[in-house]
Amino acid sequence: MATIINMPRLSDTMEEGTVASWLKQVGDKIEEGDILAEIETDKATMEFESFHEGTLLHIGVQAGETAPVDVLLAIIGEEGEDVSALLNADAPSDETKEEAVLTATAAPSETEATTIPEGVEIINMPRLSDTMEEGTVASWLKQVGDNVEEGDILAEIETDKATMEFESFFSGTLLHIGIQVGETAAVDTLLAIIGPKGTDVAVILAASAATPKPTGSEPTAVAATVQTEIPVETPAVAAAGATTTPDTTSNGRIMASPLAKKIAKEKGIDLNLVTGTGESGRIVKRDVEQFSPAAALTAAPVQAAVFVPAGQEKQEEIPNSQMRKTIAKRLGASKFSAPHYYLSVEFDMDAAIAFRKQYNSIPDTKISFNDIVVKAVALALKAHPQVNSQWFDDKMVLNHHVHVGVAVAVEDGLVVPVLKFANEMNLPQIGSQVRDFAGRARSKKLTPQEMDGSTFTVSNLGMFGIDEFTSIINQPNSAILSVGAIVQKPVVKEGEIVVGNTMKLTLACDHRTVDGATGAQFLQTLKAYIENPIRLVV
Prior knowledge:
The chain is built from 12 helices and 27 strands. By secondary structure, the protein is of the alpha+beta class.
């Protein structure tokens, strides 16, 4: 009997996942424990293994696509088993199906099926993300006439989220390229044709061109401007009293197709100066592409000297990654639910500098100031369980174990791997594990278990030259420590001004669990460890 496999929840904060790659394909035999796919969560890219045996009958979320947790991911069952009933359970309504017939080109019609020679495969613009509506071909790695093997990278396609490699699932000769480098086209538009060498593609193209399109549809290929954008030499001209303007609705809205508006925005063209040749004077793609600012000025009566600005407005939209959306959600919830307050202190680091230099003189030993801070924090937390606590709606938990989370910056934001029982680790062990966590965090190889269970968090921006800052508490923890840079400056020692080294730290506390006096006492204990670091090893 067929088994439905849904998108798994691979971390406590995961709400949706992206299939990075499928390691099994439809028709493959599956054994319990086999890796089905690599799934990218908000924290890491993880291998997802099967808990069932059988044949992979259906894939519901293609590589590169994103889907919410519990959405149909795959179906495993007996070879040849009919799964149409399972698929029809989530089938779209009749109206949705009717609309899909008008817009989709991925599935060939019966007419096309009869005209496409055996062994020929039509490849359409893939949907590489959940929000992708169109893609731009950044580059072709194969050219017409090249031999293509299954798994070869055909092209690099820029989506609304990233530029991704698109590989071929077929073998043969690349017979035709439908979208040139730099052109943009809607999902399911003809991208390429692969088949036996020497195949006449004219019949295939004719069948594709004969496919019914929605009324009023326009070609979707437009000149790309991402990364290779060349600023328009002739800026938009707002000529007063222009005599030729497009028809508008009663509220003054310009009648133009979405594609025409997009091209006009990219080229800096004022649509008020463009004459529409579409139905009812509607501006379409060709009107914008053929528009000439000089002709528009000639057609307009000259009433005064026209100032043509040389500047060009330009902006960039960056889609939010899953990690970024999760960070925003969790930190927003923390900031607006936990009553934060902050305690700032400045430590004398002269002794710590000397201690580190002497410690690193030991062969094959290297510790950082961050390692010293983490160790000192762990010991101080052991003495102040109130700061090592967690707040829940119905209770407060005092932790007598110390699990220190260390914030690590990655490309999409930050992650917080956890040093378990940090108070029991020595300095080299802390340094080694932090470096290992940092390396794997940047390659998205951390497991959810390595990022769960923190009782306190340390965030260090001193390495970036930041003297002092505040952080948002990583709930359900009660506090987070912000560590600044070590700064050399004049200080007073024994009544004299001398050159000293200091470091500022700021403790953010949740007032529901940590009172001001409690936080201050924790910082006093921390100060004793950092300013007298020999206590860390005895």
